[in-house]
Amino acid sequence: MKTRNAHDELRRVQATTDYLLQPSEDGWIIGHFSSNRLSSVFQPVVDANTRQVIGHAAYIRSETDNTNVLSPWGIFALATEDTLLVNLDRLCRTVHAINYFNTASGPGDLFVSVQPRLLESVKDDHGRAFAEVLDLIGVATSRVVIEIPSEVNRNWRLLRHVIGNYRSRGYRIAANHSRASDSWMAELGGLYPDIVRQDASDLLQYNGSDSLLDTVHRFGASLLVRDIETSQQMRAAIRAGAHLLQGRFLGEPARMIEASRPRAVAGGSPGARE
Q: Which of 13, 60, 71, 248 is 20 to 30 A away from residue 42, measured at CA?
């Protein structure tokens, strides 16, 4: 997409929201919250079979006017009130969407997380505001994967409600697997997530991957193994039957879009480096 279109889309978003957005010198969009400048970094999500990049997970990066860098936890800690939190979370997803869909080439999907406090404070119609932003920039909600935070697994009713809300608007859903959720996640039935995420470190200790994979297959979902840091974890993910792979072994979060094969898996089998 051309820069001119990116600027047109930015103006449309600014005209219909109160988000503080501006283009940086290199053309990326920067959001402003308090005295902080917010930008995006993206980490590739890789198809375990083809080793091709199929999308990217977005993470927020921020710095103050004094160039002090804040962690994502630090920036969200500034939003002490629910109203501020809702505005900040929506601002972050807007920054990610404009940056990603005006930079990425091909049909890649954008993976974005939501804050657990937002899911609790917004009682209904989750995803409506973000869907309106996506419509302004000409992107279908089906190209966005909403990552439900693991904290929501503790609240069965909230998890069902949130998944139902997002799915009704066409988003795809990723939820986090844990040993505690293994026995009841299948009870979601038609609200079963499109993607189940498993931490690579837990996978090496978890003996129930076969049953997890059976359940994932039964509901037509995909298993994503994330936080892959080493070739050992990479091999374990492949053996476990993972469909999608993510982690620093495959690519660091960066202010660029990896469009083909990460260097760690390009040209052959995993395990090229430790």
A: 13
First to last CA, the chain: 37
Q: Which of the 8 DSSP states describes residue 71?
A: -
Beta partners for residue 29, in sequence order: 23
Please state the rounded mean pLDDT for residues 171-196.
83
Return the higher-pLDDT residue of 217 and 172: 172
SS3 55: strand
Phi/psi region, residue 74 (left: phi>0; alpha: psi -120 to 50; beta: rest), is alpha
E strand segments, 76-157: 109-113, 144-147
- 209: part of which helix (H) or strand (E)? helix 209-218
256 contacts 26 by C-beta, under 8 angstroms: no
Q: Is the pLDDT of residue 139 over 80?
A: yes
**Residue with more model confidence, 61 or 227:** 227
Report the length, in residues, of the chain. Answer: 274
| Residue whose structure tokens are 């993607």 | 195
| Residues above pLDDT 70, as percent of the chain | 82
Of 212, 253, 208, 251, which is closest to residue 228 (Cα–Cα)?
251
